[in-house]
Design goal:
The structure holds 3 protein chains of 3 kinds. Chain A is of the alpha/beta class. Helix content of chain A is about 65%, strand content about 10%. Chain C folds into 2 domains: about 220 residues, P-loop containing nucleotide triphosphate hydrolases (Rossmann fold); about 70 residues, Alpha-Beta Plaits. Classes of the chains: A alpha/beta, B alpha/beta, C alpha/beta. At the B-C interface, helix 6, helix 7 and helix 9 of B face helix 5, helix 6, helix 8, strand 12 and helix 10 of C.
């Protein structure tokens, strides 16, 4: 145990004494969060909506007011019939039409549910999704004000409505967590191991009585801890800077993060076993892990939008599964009962990769 | 050869922050001399070499190399000097001919001139048969001899050799020195660093740097006499021992 | 049983044979030198003996442990210093030492007397990072790190390469003291002049051992008559001697030239006459005993020829 402690301490020295490592570890998550945050936030602003109010009661009026006062929407016009919807969209100014069903307030009070349809302009699917999610969030917020039993069922209608789950501007946070964990865990691990090879210190470690798993554990544990700290700091920043909600179980989220981190660390170790120099390790990490994580995980481009071959490939991207899990827990508050499949896949990947990497990590030079 | 010195350094100093790497060194080197530039690790040899080859500006002092000022005419200096070190010599993934063509091109030699020189050079080294072999596949000794010849390709006035014989077997080392002698006899000035003290004896004159200063400069015979030593090794040890832990 | 026993060790990398059928033994308490230029196979040999590489053929035992089968046991008993002083540049002297002690499950305090002699010389700078040390200090630190777990045998791969003459000398003094304390030391070096510091040496070239014996026996078995010549212009002297009909070899050696004759005995008088005819006055000619370097070159020529 003593030798293990010494190993971890030494690894922490490396981390805290290298300004570049510190910057990647702690500066980059903040910068990325802010960049992504503002880039995406600035998209929704003063979007024009049209309202078809078949109820014309106090509740529908209140919801429209709520929407308009949110700052995201501006009223283009009230329309009188469904036939007008297409015409409104064709003019291009209006991005979204909101339709209240007849007797909206009455149904809400007597039956506890009322239906609200949202038709969004399918020309810009990302924007459409954002608008629908904003409207939904604001409407739900209003329903909660009314009382526990009142629920407004929002029926979104976007022609490209491939994904009827809640889509919001907050979508990027789970993806970002995945990206940062991949970067810190895989990239930094592969670099720190190959650095020892370059230095020649790996030879001394190998001829010492340390077992390969001890070397791996000693190298990896500090990065695991730092990764967890990174998860916390990204969540905190997202919450306080952008008001991103966290609806599900925090504990579950951390456990899932741990699984994902283990997967990423194993990938980092595997990369280090095939690269001789830090440069090579960095190139493989960036090209082989970072790009797929950004492009194929559904973080930036929805998986459902991809051509089928890419969708198939996306299954082997660990981040793809983690992004689904993280979005579920954070934004929808879902638990293990819904996410068990993804969790199982991730756990399987972690176990498989970890055992491969420990085995591949040779106790000799060749 | 009654001529001007090819290297003149006067009170040359280089500081990095508070650290003085080269401290007020002065010396002259004549054309065709083999000048040994010795010193312990960290004594400032590399920094001094960089200043003389126009890669680094001195903090104070002056120096002229091949007639050019190191402050204002660094580019002209570079065209008149050759350089070879143990670490960087030739591109391993290129053939002997490709390396020669590349270096010839860098120094603005015409293609037919490069071709002539390559044939001449490979012939003299007895390496015609490896003209189209990759450098990486050649024995270390061959690489070094070839690298030295390539450094002479553009007829430089001075060649800087930074530990050129490190790790080479004693036979190849001597063959290498014969190339050096041959070049010097043809008028090229050789400026060489080495850790082999017996090689210091092969030099016309030797300077020994300690902590950034030149503590001794004379012929090997003169130095041995002055320090009452049997070998250059002893001279070196006596001079450097005092400085060991002062760093 | 010998401290190291190698039987027909062989290792190839691709189509390069780094070490070819090496067999030798190193006794307990011996200071054994592997001497040869780059590419002689010294590092590959060391890596096989320290269990870092598995030989393609042959076998070796170190301190009674088979280097392949008993490698776990072996690794507790050896101290290994790879080339290039493998230290953590961003850790201080004391942090490096404490780390290497910890991976062997020990502490600096517990084994201090093992390294005291060497470590005391760098202890005043213990808060300094390894990256800022001079070559000589790095070398001392690396040796301390290799000794901190009280190994039974030390493998030092080119510990003096790239280090100045003063540090090299001091380093050999340290090794001598360790040997007096009973340590078995296997060291490699490209410097022929360090051969004399070893009890026995193996002269290596291109994966082969050209000769293995005490330095005295190696130089003593030098067969050719050897003459040391001193004169003003060494280069011209060499060129002139090459034209002498009975010359076997002529090499510069420090300030003098070593000449060997192709006959069983040399004739200094005839040489002097020959040189005078070529315009060399005041050449001293003296028969001398061969050095390790002379022997090495002779063995090289025999081997290649």
């Amino acid at each position: 145990m003593n030798s293990f402690k010494g190993f971890v301490i030494k690894e922490l020295y490396h981390i805290f004494r290298d300004r570049r490592t510190m910057l990647i570890l702690f500066g980059m998550p903040v910068v990325q969060l802010i960049l992504f945050g503002f880039a995406i936030r600035n998209e929704v602003n003063n979007a024009y909506i049209a309202v078809l109010d078949l109820s014309k009661d106090d509740v529908s009026e209140a919801i429209v007011n709520k929407l308009l006062s949110s700052g995201y929407f501006r009223l283009a016009e009230y329309i009188e019939s469904e036939e007008r919807i297409e015409a409104v969209f064709r003019r291009g100014k209006v991005k979204e039409v909101i339709i209240f069903e007849p007797q909206f307030a009455q149904r809400l009070r007597s039956e506890g549910t009322a239906h609200l349809r949202i038709v969004a302009d399918a020309a810009d699917p990302n924007m459409a999704k954002l608008l629908v999610s904003y409207t939904t969030a604001i409407t739900n917020g209003y329903a909660q004000e009314l009382g526990q039993r009142a629920s407004i069922v929002v029926v979104p209608e976007v022609k490209l409505l491939y994904n009827p789950e809640l889509k919001s501007v907050y979508m990027f946070v789970p993806g970002l967590v995945a990206l940062i964990l991949m970067l810190v865990s895989a990239l930094m691990t592969s670099i720190t191991i190959t650095r020892e090879k370059e230095l020649g210190t790996m030879e001394i470690l190998l001829v010492s009585p340390l077992r390969p798993f001890q070397i791996i554990a000693g190298k990896v544990l500090p990065y695991l801890l730092l990764s967890l700290i990174n998860v916390l700091s990204v969540l905190a920043l997202a919450r306080f800077l952008f008001g991103v909600p966290f609806r599900g179980s925090f504990l579950l989220f951390m456990v899932e993060s741990l699984l994902f981190i283990l997967t990423a660390l194993s990938l980092g170790i595997m990369i280090s076993t095939v690269s001789k120099t830090q440069q090579a390790a960095m190139m493989i990490s960036l090209g082989g892990l970072m790009l797929p994580t950004i492009l194929l995980s559904g973080f930036v481009f929805p998986v459902e939008n991809m051509p089928v071959p890419l969708q198939v490939i996306s299954h082997i991207i660990p981040a793809r599964w983690f992004v689904v899990i993280a979005r579920g827990i954070m934004l929808k508050g879902t638990g293990l009962d819904y996410l068990w499949k993804e969790t199982l896949v991730l756990a399987g990947m972690a176990t498989l990769l970890l055992s491969i990497s420990v085995r591949k990590f040779n106790e000799r030079l060749q | 050869m009654a001529s001007e010195p090819v290297i003149v350094a006067r009170n040359l100093t280089k500081r990095f922050g508070a650290f003085t790497a080269v401290d007020n060194i002065s010396f002259e080197v004549m054309p065709g001399e083999i000048f040994g530039f010795l010193g312990a690790n960290g004594a400032g040899k590399t920094t001094a070499m960089k200043m003389l080859s126009g890669l680094l500006s001195p903090t104070t002092g002056e120096a002229r190399v091949a007639g050019y000022d190191v402050f204002t005419q660094a580019e002209s200096i570079k065209s008149r000097i050759g350089y070879m070190s143990q670490r960087f010599s030739l591109y391993e993934d290129m053939t002997a001919w490709e390396n020669i063509r590349f270096y010839g091109g860098i120094y603005g030699l015409r293609m037919d001139a490069i071709r002539d020189k390559a044939a001449q050079l490979l012939g003299r080294l007895g390496m015609e048969h490896v003209r189209d072999s990759r450098i990486g596949a050649l024995p270390l000794g061959w690489k070094q001899k070839l690298a030295f010849s390539v450094a002479l390709l553009h007829n430089p006035a001075i060649v800087f050799l930074d530990e050129p014989t490190g790790g080479v077997d004693p036979l190849t080392r001597r063959q290498f020195w014969e190339l050096i002698y041959e070049a010097a006899a043809s008028g090229v000035t050789i400026f060489i660093t080495t850790h082999y003290m017996d090689e210091a004896e092969y030099c016309g004159r030797v300077s020994i740097m300690v902590d950034g200063r030149i503590e001794a400069l004379d012929t090997p015979g003169g130095l041995k006499q002055a320090f009452d030593a049997q070998s250059m090794d002893e001279v070196f040890v006596r001079l450097a021992r005092g400085a060991q832990y002062a760093e | 049983m010998s401290a190291v026993q190698a039987e027909a060790l062989r290792k190839t990398f691709g189509n390069v044979t780094a070490v070819e059928d090496l067999s030798f033994a190193i006794e307990h308490g011996e200071l054994f030198g592997c001497i040869g230029p780059d590419g002689a196979g010294k590092t590959t040999l060391f890596r096989m003996l320290t269990s870092l590489l598995v030989p393609d053929a042959g076998s070796a035992t170190v301190m009674g442990c088979d280097t392949v089968r008993d490698y776990k046991q072996l690794r507790r008993r050896i101290g290994y210093m790879p080339g290039r002083f493998s230290l953590y540049q961003d850790l201080t002297i004391e942090e490096n030492l404490a780390f290497f002690a910890s991976i062997f499950g020990t502490t600096v305090e517990k084994n201090y007397e093992m390294i005291a002699d060497i470590y005391r010389q760098i202890e005043p700078f213990k808060k300094r990072r390894a990256g800022q040390l001079s070559g000589g200090m790095k070398q001392k630190l690396a040796l301390s790190c290799a000794l901190i777990h009280k190994p039974d045998i030390l493998f030092l791969d080119e510990p003096t390469t790239g280090v100045d003459a003063v540090s090299r000398r001091e380093f050999w003094e340290m090794l001598r003291r360790l040997k007096e304390g009973g340590m078995t030391i296997v060291v490699s070096t490209p410097y022929m002049d360090e051969a004399g510091k070893c009890d026995r040496i193996a002269l290596m070239q291109k994966g082969h051992i050209l000769g293995i014996d005490t330095p005295d026996n190696i130089t003593g078995s030098y067969a050719r008559p050897l003459l040391d010549m001193r004169g003003a212009d060494v280069y011209r002297l060499i060129l002139a001697l090459r034209e002498f009909p009975h010359t076997h070899s002529v090499f510069a050696f420090g300030e003098s030239v070593h000449y060997t004759d192709s006959r069983s005995s040399a004739d200094p008088e005839a040489l002097a006459v020959f040189l005078r005819s070529r315009g060399f006055a005041n050449i001293t000619i003296e028969p001398i005993r061969a050095s390790v370097e002379d022997s090495f070159m002779e063995l090289l020529e025999q081997h290649d020829g």
